[in-house]
Design a protein that fits this description.
- The chain is 79% helix and 0% strand.
């Protein structure tokens, strides 16, 4: 088990390093100069003082070779220092610390709703003995996946804000203001969870151990939840880990539609302003949330199926012998 945990921690560190490196290279090759844009804010480009631009470029380290910039920024990032925002001058960590709680609240609520709605739909669809109802319920997840997130948000605003006036349409107005944005993110995410879990449950219900449980007198509900669901949940857990990144990315659109303060709006503003330190901070923080969630899921796997640790050790031994 210790080797399994160390291996997953090393993989998480590798993902964070790759996220930072790729973002650095992509941002470095983007056209335009953020320092010139910052210096010329509010004035014509001909009025910009070249000495001021040179001083700003030296202050942010943009006058150094690319490899030197990468090494210095990576060293500071490892210590949790992503520098100062080019657009606002505030420390990147402070900017993210102000925006992150709202985004985590939104994505956490959306993930909870997605698991409850998607998991509930899959369980009911595979449990019912009525064929027409099963087909109807199983046709909903593909529809939920295909619908654009922003369109779902606009429909929810139109129905529950403008017509019924149950929830506010915009802003960070406590729990009531969280319902519609979270539901907007949860619809496509829950649909994907429902697709994977329903397929896994249908496969599990045809296995020999399920027939054995039925032969021993276990009821349908007990067989469905106690025996089939436990084994069928492993693929769904994997999908949930991958969907965390999708939720963070989707928050950019949702926070824009609902005019919510959070990491999404900070990201959109940073990309528009070519704020390289802030964009890199957002990328690394997003990757950190992603790898943390996947690490937790990887550590939950052995609790559901101890054979995973044994298989991982066998794979490591084969690789070592090779």
């Amino acid at each position: 088990m210790r080797r399994y945990v160390i291996k997953r921690l090393a993989q998480a560190a590798g993902v964070l390093w790759a996220a930072y490196t790729v973002s650095f290279l992509v941002l470095d090759y983007l056209p335009g100069d953020p320092v010139t844009a910052m210096a010329s804010a509010g004035m014509d480009s001909g009025q910009v003082d070249p000495e001021q631009i040179a001083a700003l470029r030296h202050e942010y380290g943009f006058d150094k070779p690319v490899l030197v910039q990468y090494a210095e920024y990576l060293g500071r990032a490892v210590r949790g220092d992503f520098g100062d925002s080019v657009a606002t001058g505030r420390p990147v960590t402070s900017t993210l610390a102000d925006a992150l709680p709202q985004t985590l609240q939104l994505t956490g609520a959306a993930l909870l709703l997605a698991v409850v709605l998607g998991g509930g739909l899959a369980v009911v669809a595979t449990y019912t003995s009525k064929r027409w109802l099963r087909q109807l319920l199983l046709s909903l997840p593909p529809l939920g996946v295909s619908v654009p997130t922003f369109w779902v948000g606009l429909l929810l605003v139109e129905a529950f804000s403008f017509r019924l006036r149950w929830f506010p349409a915009f802003g960070n107005d406590g729990l009531r203001g969280l319902v519609l944005p979270a539901l907007t993110l949860a619809v496509p995410t829950g649909a994907q969870i429902a697709q994977v879990l329903a397929k896994s449950l249908l496969t599990a219900l045809d296995q020999a151990y399920v027939e054995t449980a039925r032969a021993k007198g276990a009821g349908r509900w007990r067989v469905h939840l106690r025996h089939a669901l436990r084994n069928a949940s492993l693929p769904a857990l994997t999908v949930i880990g991958l969907l965390v990144g999708q939720l963070i990315a989707g928050s950019v659109v949702v926070e824009t539609v609902f005019s919510r303060d959070g990491l999404g709006r900070v990201t959109a503003a940073a990309v528009t302003a070519q704020d390289i330190p802030l964009v890199q901070g957002v990328v690394v923080f997003g990757a950190l949330i992603f790898v943390t969630t996947n690490l937790v899921i990887d550590l939950v796997y052995p609790l559901l199926d101890p054979r995973i640790v044994v298989a991982s050790e066998a794979s490591d031994r084969r690789a070592g012998f090779a």
